[in-house]
Each structure stands twice: as C-alpha cells, then as structure tokens.
Amino acid sequence: LPHVHLISTFRYPLMSRVELNDVTKWLMQAPSIARDKAPFYWTYLDCPADSTIFLMWQPTARRGNEFSSDGYYWASPEVMLSNPLNNGLIYFQKCGWRAGEQITMHSRRRFRLAHARDAQVANPPQIDPNLWIVHYGPSENQDRYPTSSFGVPPQIQSIMNNRQHLFQLGQIVRKEFMLSDRVNWPQIPFPQRGQSIYVPPMQQQPMNTRTAYLGGPGGPGQPPSKRRGQQAQPGHPMGAGYPSADGALDDDEDVHRGDMFDHLSPREMSMHRYQQNHEWMEEILSSPYRIGQLESGDVLEQLPKKPYTGRLEPGLADKMRERAQAKIAEVQAEIQKLKAQHEKRMGEFKQNTAIRDAEAELRVYAGVGSEPWRLEGRVEGEEEEESYNKKPSRSIEEITADVEKLLGTKAITVPEVSRVQDGGYQQLAPEPEIIAPSAGACPRGGWAFRGA
Fold first, then answer.
1. Number of neighbouring beta carbons within 10 Å of residue 394
2. Domain that holds residue 149
3. Where does the record place the region Disordered (predicted)?
4. Is the Cβ–Cβ distance between 54 and 30 less than 8 Å?
5. Which residues are bridge partners to 85 per DSSP?
6. pLDDT, tens digit, for every residue of 29-70?
7. Is residue 434 one of the residues assigned to a domain?
8. Which of the listed residues 226, 247, 268 is the one where a domain comes to its end?
9. pTM over 0.70
C-alpha cells in the first residue's frame, strides 16, 4: 500500500486547472461510476504528467489520508483545506519535482467528500469517503524554486529506494475488476528479490533464444533487462505503472496522435495477448460446463427470425421463386419510376437553362439603325468599342422562335403602360392619302402644250 494505487479506468479530460464545482460533480458521480461503469486495477504511479486527473479508491481505515508514493519529490508536507460545511477536504502539495529537474514545476491536489458532522440535512446524498479525485498540474509562478534549495529527508529517500527495488522486480500485471466485487479482488503479495510474482509464470522460464532474453526479465540470479531500463525516463529505473499523458490517449475517440497500438511496443502487445489468452483459458477450465458444450460466439448480433437448414419441401422452392420474381418486378418498376422522375427533373433543368441563356442574349441585344437618336442601339458603321454592345449571333425573331418551341406557347408583347380608360382622349384623324399624278396630266386650270 505505500507504493501501489487502486485507479479507475474512467477517463477525465486533461485540465491544467480544475474548479471546485467540477470536482464536486465528479465526486458525486464517483460512487455510481465505481459501482456500475468503470473497473479498477492496481498499479504504480511514476510521475504522472501535468493536467492528469485520476479517480482512486483508498482505504482510509488503514491508510488514513496518507497518499502512496507517486515518484515526485515534494518540497513540503501536504496542506489540508476544508469548506465551510466540513463535507469536503482538499489536500494540496504546492510544489514538487521529478528526479533530474532543476525547478519545482509540479503540484498535486487531492479531493474527497466526507460526512458533515454539524450539518443537519433530511436526505443527505450518498457519498464514499474512500473515493478520491487526484489532479496533477503545474505549480504557481510564486511557488517555483530551485530544487537545490530543498534537501531530501532520509525518510523520503528510503521510500524512493523501496520504489526502485519494486520496479526492478517487475511491474504489476494489470487485472481489472469491479470495486463492488470484493470476492474477485486480486491478491498482491510483497515480491521477493530473484523471483518476481508480478509477471506471468511462463515469462519466468529461462529460454536460450535471443528474442526471449530481450522480451522479458531474466531468471533467478540474473540482473534485470537493460532494454527495459533504456526505455524508461531519465532518473527513473523503470517506467512501470501508469503511462504518462504525453504518450497516452486522451480519449477513445482522440486519435490525432495515433491509436493505442502506436504507443505499444511489440513486447507489450505480446504480453497483453498472452494475458488475454490466459484469462480465456481460465474461464474455459473453470466453467461448470463440459468442453463439448462450449461453442464460440456468433458474429451475428442476433439470430434470424426463422432459422432453417436442410432440404426444402416440394413446392416451397417454386413459391420462393415466385416471391423473388415479384420482388424483382416491384424493384424494376420502382427503378423505372425513379428514372422517369429523373428525366423530368433534368428536362426542367435544361428548360430553365435555355430560358436563362435566351434572356442573357436579349439583354445584350441592340437594334441597329441609321438614326442618330436611337437610344438603345447604335448607328450603323459605328465601331464596336464595348463588348456588351456586340450583336448576338441570333436575331430576336430566332430567339423568340426557339423559346416558343421550347415552351410550346406563343410569345406576346406586353406593353409597359396600359390605358385603363379613354377619358377625353381623341383619336388622331388619319392623314390623307396623297395620290401621285399620272403621266401627261397637268394641274387644274393650267395650260397644256403639245408639240408639233
């Protein structure tokens, strides 16, 4: 217990600062999470990264409020704070550092709920004082000091030496279990040097191959693998325990840094595969049923409504063919209907496109004449300086005929101004028709001369 932690697999977001309202909400939800949603597992903590949040269970009857080692060197003892109702406790470490760091840049806060002594509430909420929210974050600027100004007490140095000894013996096999299932809690006896109980027995067997030597720790009397020490962080003999947040995934859906297999070495994948197969074999061997009664799970989510295997009765195949042909005909009819709708819609699109093009041609159309007072056109022979005054390739009559043919209707002229009532308006008298005189005729009262 001085070095191991019981941590929940429930994930919290990475936050450099936490608010008391959020922590209170998390602690109120913690009993239901521990009971129904997320399992727990025993592990070491090796300097968790800043912004990391854990849900832990700690037996206060045995450990009290003392926290197990986490790999950090803390400059001062924890400071306990409480709220005015005395139903919430905060244990605060202002500044700490990892081995090898020069500045105290880390802090830790632990939160838990407690039963209020003086408060009189009719129906108090159900809380678990053994559940803790532990948050690691950066220290404040005023709490950052050189680590050389702090000495390491002999008691703290002894704790760190014990951690190093435990890390050299191997890491704890991660076996998840529900907190309410006390019967199946895994037992963790204290390890002895030379024979580690933390790894599966098959890993303890000495093997002569080079791959086996690099894959796991040596046998009795052999030093631990150097490869494992090289993979650890500087200043730590072994990166066992909980993975750092730099390489861990924030959430199951957060894959911008890769999935879980991108952060696992081949040895770790082989270890997990061996553990999973070992647990499956334990379930099979400890099952009350015989081996012949066990079947592999089906890939189907559920069984079909009418499962049937064997030979069909006479006539059933013909009925099935008739139903299949009827279904095929129904599908073909639906396909033809969809095609007709598509053709109709495409025809409307083409019609709208043709009308839009005709309108664009009419916008730039300009009549041509010899009169200089033409406002909407241009004089014949004038140079075409503006592109929008260019004469279209088709005349107005051709454009109108194409639109009438496309729409199937006759185009009519719509005047801009319509006369509602004549009123005192009088129609202009028609101009008299001028009759040209015939050849040889002379004006009335004139003289006519004839040649000889």
1. 14
2. 4-116+125-193+234-247
3. 207-260
4. no
5. none
6. 898 888 888 889 888 888 898 989 999 988 877 777 888 888
7. no
8. 247
9. no
